[in-house]
Design brief:
Chain A: This is Leucine rich repeat containing 58. Chain A: It holds the Pfam family LRR_8. Chain A: InterPro entries: Leu-rich_rpt, Leu-rich_rpt_typical-subtyp, LRR_dom_sf, LRR_domain-containing. Chain A: Keywords: Leucine-rich repeat, Repeat. The complex is a heterodimer of chains A (354) and B (204). Chain A is of the alpha/beta class and 354 residues long. In chain A, 16% of the residues lie in helices and 15% in strands. In chain A, helix 3 links the parallel strand 3 and strand 4. Chain B has 204 residues and is mainly beta. Helices cover 12% and strands 34% of the residues of chain B. Chain B has 3 helices and 14 strands. The chains are: A alpha/beta (354), B mainly beta (204). Chains A and B meet through strand 10 and helix 6 of A and strand 14 of B. Strand 10 of chain A pairs parallel with strand 14 of chain B, so a sheet runs across the interface.
């Protein structure tokens, strides 16, 4: 019962014939998963299922998704996990530019494939809300990820990712971020700008500390950190390189508000002065440029666990007690004076002995 | 003289039958753990029978109440999305049976932290439970963490707790520090039952 509509191998025309025979202007979901497909999806797909909204080709052994998808005008969910995608040409060229599919696609699941990098073909999908690339072979996240403006759900667990680009924090609607089972050594402080983040999965990575800005994620409800070599002891970085003369001059200008005009200084020094960072110690009010002290402090996270957070201070003296009156602290602020650091260590011991 | 305990081998053909037999087994005061475990083992998972209870949440695993066992036990279905896991927890002096209905779940057993409670908790063992396998735990055996380690597949499990309990303690793996938590149901008898989310769940 083979209808030979094209000169392709018997099996492939068998698939095309099978799908053609099921053609329908009403079919919204097509599930072809869990059976080995003999070849790529036939080009007639969009003609036979013009109303298709959900296509599931998971576990079919597909090595490429081609242009047959581009003319599906209503496809919002494409599930293609556990296949052999990942080589060049795995995804159709012009995917993001496709006038209909490029805008309609909301959910894309490519978990369990062989992608070694986040496919560039995806980056223009401005309507994409959910992207899964779990269990692939990614070593990094491209900064262009920020182009996926509508992304709410990003699953990248089970790859070989070593760092998180700060551009990830530009995704305004991101609420679920999964980075577990990777090789991440640090979290950029910019991640705290993800105001919509509700759930952050970082377990089984190589983190030793977190940036103090993580306390700003006020909507965070789920946080997984297990399986990281997080430091448990109060740690202070003892290798402090004293500031250069240029740095000292820069600090003085800034902290004493010495006025200057662009004509007063060469361009490189003007730019240098612009790069001053404020010391986070509220009692200090100083600035630093290149020379700072890294210090890990422990902060009560929502009254539960003590998390090691990295602080950058302008000098070792910054953690010593100040003579100024103590300020009231919010529930999320951390202590920066030596006094309070000692108290924190005490409390830490109490927790451990608990 | 005490009557010898007879362990009957039950076979539950359907989920409904499983519930009925459970009611019978828990009618008295004594729980025959081997009998209950054999019964749970015997049920061949059929998604058509439990899919009405299997409500997934994008952010974390869900607890969906199936039956209240006349106050003697709680039977519930837990739905685990990719990468979802529990904290290390105890079972508040109750029996806990856990059967995988779909996918795989990794169970890691931990020793109770010692009274001084300093430092990393000790892992006893770990195993992966496959579809239809059933595990048992109680506080005298230890503590455990359950997780769906798959990045591509969901998992569903059937849990029986007797007596029922609403609070338990969760433990920080790094320090052994424990905290009491109240457990909630995502749905009951197939109906979604939302409630206010509690404090941040740090999964440690």
């Amino acid at each position: 019962m083979c209808r030979h509509t094209q000169t392709s191998p018997t099996l492939r025309s068998g698939l095309a014939a099978d799908l053609a025979s099921r053609r329908s202007a009403e079919t919204r979901r097509l599930v072809l998963s869990q059976r080995r497909l003999p070849g790529p999806l036939p080009p007639g797909l969009a003609r036979w299922f013009p109303a298709l909204e959900v296509l599931d080709v998971s576990g079919t052994g597909l090595a490429a998704l081609g242009s047959e998808l581009l003319s599906l005008p209503r496809l919002h969910t494409l599930l293609a996990k556990n296949n052999r995608l990942g080589g060049p040409g795995s995804l159709p060229k012009g995917l993001a530019e496709a006038p209909l599919l490029g805008r309609s696609l909301r959910v894309l699941n490519l978990s369990g494939n062989r992608f070694a990098e986040l496919p560039a073909a995806l980056l223009g999908l401005r309507g994409l809300q959910s992207l899964s690339l779990g269990s692939n072979r990614l070593h990094s996240i491209p900064p262009e990820i920020q182009e996926l403006r509508s992304l709410e759900f990003l699953y990248l667990g089970g790859n070989f990712i070593t760092s998180i680009p700060p551009e990830l924090a530009s995704l305004p609607s991101l609420s679920y971020l999964v980075l577990c089972d990777n090789k991440i050594q640090s979290v950029p402080p910019q991640l705290a700008q993800l105001h919509s983040l509700r759930s952050l999965s970082l377990h089984n990575n190589l983190l030793t500390y977190l940036p103090r800005e993580i306390l700003n994620l006020v909507h965070l409800e789920e946080l997984s950190l297990r399986g990281n070599p997080l430091v448990v002891r109060f740690v202070r970085d003892l290798t402090y390189n004293p500031p250069s003369l240029q740095e000292l001059a820069g600090r003085t200008i800034k902290s004493r508000n010495v006025s200057y005009t662009p004509g007063d200084l060469p361009g490189n020094l003007l730019r240098y002065l612009h790069l001053a960072s404020n010391c986070p110690n509220p009692k200090c009010g100083g600035v630093y440029f290149d020379s700072c002290v890294r210090q890990i402090k422990f902060v009560d996270f929502c009254g539960k666990y003590r998390l090691p957070l990295m602080h950058y201070l302008c000098s070792p003296e910054c953690s010593s007690p100040c003579s100024s009156a103590s300020q009231s602290s919010t529930s999320q602020s951390e202590s920066d004076s030596e006094d309070e650091a000692i108290v924190a260590a005490h409390r830490m011991q109490k927790v451990l002995l608990g | 003289m005490e009557q010898p305990v007879q362990t009957q081998m039950w076979k539950a053909q359907t989920l409904e039958e499983l519930v009925q037999i459970l009611h019978h087994l828990f009618a008295g005061d004594k729980v025959n753990v081997a009998e209950v475990q054999a019964l749970m083992d015997s049920y061949d998972s059929n998604p058509l029978e439990w899919m009405q209870y299997a409500k997934f949440d994008q952010y974390r695993y869900t607890r969906n109440l199936v039956d209240q066992g006349n106050g003697k036990f709680n039977l519930m279905i837990l739905c685990w999305g990719e990468g979802h896991g529990s904290s290390i927890h105890d079972h508040t002096d109750s029996h806990c049976f856990m059967k995988v209905l779909q996918g795989n779940l990794k169970e890691t057993l931990f020793e109770w932290p010692n009274k001084k409670g300093i430092g990393e908790m000790m892992k006893k063992s770990e195993r992966v439970l496959r579809e239809n396998q059933c595990a048992y735990i109680n506080d005298s055996i230890g503590l455990h963490r359950v997780e769906n380690t798959s990045h591509t597949e969901c998992a569903v499990s059937l849990h029986l707790y007797s007596p029922p309990f609403e609070t338990c303690s969760t433990f920080d793996q790094r320090t052994g520090h424990k905290q009491k938590v109240r457990m909630t149901f995502y749905s009951q008898f197939g109906e979604r039952t939302p409630c206010a989310t509690a404090v941040l769940q740090e999964n440690n």
